[in-house]
Amino acid sequence: MNSIEKATAFLKKTSVRGIVTGLSRIEELLHKMDDPQEKVRVIHVSGTNGKGSFGAMLTSILKSAGYRTGSFSSPAITGITDSFRINCEEISEKKLADIILGIADIWETMDDKPTEFEVLTAAAYEMFVREKCDIAVVECGLGGDLDSTNIITAPLLSVVTNIQRDHCGILGDTPEEIASHKAGIIKPGRPVYYGGTEALSVIEAAAKKNSSKLYLPNKDDFRLISDNELTGTRFSYKGIETRLSLLGTYQFANTVNVLSCVGILNELGLDIPYKAVQEGLADVKWHGRFELMCKKPVIICDGAHNPDGITTAAESIQKYFSGRRVALLIGVMADKEYRLYPEILCPLIDRVFAVTPDNPRSLDSSFLAGVFSEYGVAAEAFPELDKGVRSAYEYSKRTETPLIALGSLYMYRQFTQALSKLL
After folding, report:
1. For residues 391 and 380, is the Cβ–Cβ distance under 8 A?
2. How many other C-beta atoms can be found within 10 angstroms of the C-beta atom of residue 100?
3. In this predicted model, what pLDDT tens digit does every residue of 301-351 receive, in sequence order?
4. 11 phi, psi to nearest 5 deg
5. What is the pTM of this model?
6. What is the predicted pLDDT for the residue at 217?
7. What number is the average pLDDT over the span 147-153?
8. CATH homologous superfamily for 3-283?
9. Per-residue model confidence as pLDDT tens digits over 271-304
10. C-alpha–C-alpha distance, residues 184 and 146, integer Å
11. Which residues pair with 242 in a beta bridge?
């Protein structure tokens, strides 16, 4: 067994605990590791949607500006190293395995064993130190206040991208309840940026309580030029035209958040010229966010997995394929509000290919197909995702119908592997 196999076996061992709230375990673990989280400047990112795209854009910009930038995001969708990046590139399996196996030795000495995500978080902070990062962009896994990433005492900047309904069983049923958890990343005396509008009073109260300067987006500086071209998104910032390589109508809002934070970081003493912004946005890559996988037939994968994400994905479908119906390949987790999806999507689709992602939380494809059939749309069920992808691809190619894969980032890897065998 090589080192990465040993590390993977260890992580499987830690995963049996599932999600356990509280910061005591990660605090103890990191302290035994000499508190690496306090040795790097961290931009801490929370919010319901847009965290991954935000982090990818900002990391690419910081790299272009000459900063050695680390990033940690979740979930990992292409492999174990996908969550761990230095200057936008995945860390090697060997380097990550060395870090995780070192943590395993400490883990064994602890009475209250850390969870899998706590181990991964600790590995990220250790990676930033070993790789001598100037800055790290760290994405919350769930919520904010009790998320294991929320162990830093003085982030360079705290960011809450937006507030929408998701993980309601854990975070609450209202925007205000959810915002109270997200606002938990705000630290005393450290600046915070909020890019949303929902539950603003909650964010304002948390900032005031912590004597933290609160920044909001100045949308007057931005003008959308085009968000319906499969070559990217074009906009102007203070009159300067700029191209973002990422697709999706929601990416313009993410860009507003990113560039607003670039302005804050420059106020805080960083040197990020606009040339670096343009280069970083033109070069940025991010998996599973209205990602163009194939041009003929057109195949797009988007990891939308909650009602707000599905709604914005539907808006993108309307923009890019105005007047045309699309085929939908979809697989979801059983704990999501999937019954809301057909009402949002059915006006845009002519056929549904429901699949069961390879995850213990997955909803059965037959049940999902039935949910869509109730809305009068032809829907087929495929317990095996590979067969669903093949059938959807053949239908798309035969009818020249765009194919959109939605539902969960957890099926991205299996989807791309199945698709690669057909292209």
Report:
1. yes
2. 24
3. 998 878 888 998 999 999 999 989 999 999 998 988 899 999 999 999 999
4. -65, -35
5. 0.89
6. 95
7. 95
8. Mur-like, catalytic domain (3.40.1190.10)
9. 999 999 999 999 999 998 899 999 999 999 998 8
10. 8
11. 235
Q: 3-state secondary structure string, 340-380?
A: HHHHHHHHHEEEEEEECCCCCCECCHHHHHHHHHCCCCEEE
For residues 137 and 69, is the Cβ–Cβ distance under 8 A?
yes
- The pLDDT tens digits for 215-261 are 999 999 999 999 899 999 999 999 999 999 999 988 999 999 999 99
Say which CATH superfamily domain 291-420 falls into.
Mur ligase, C-terminal domain (3.90.190.20)
* pLDDT computed for residue 169 by the predictor: 44
Please tell me the distance from the alpha carbon of residue 41 to that of residue 154, in angstroms, as a whole number. Answer: 8
Distance CA 217, CA 366 (A): 44
Residue ranges of domains in the chain: 3-283, 291-420
Q: How far is CA 292 from the centre of its chain?
A: 17
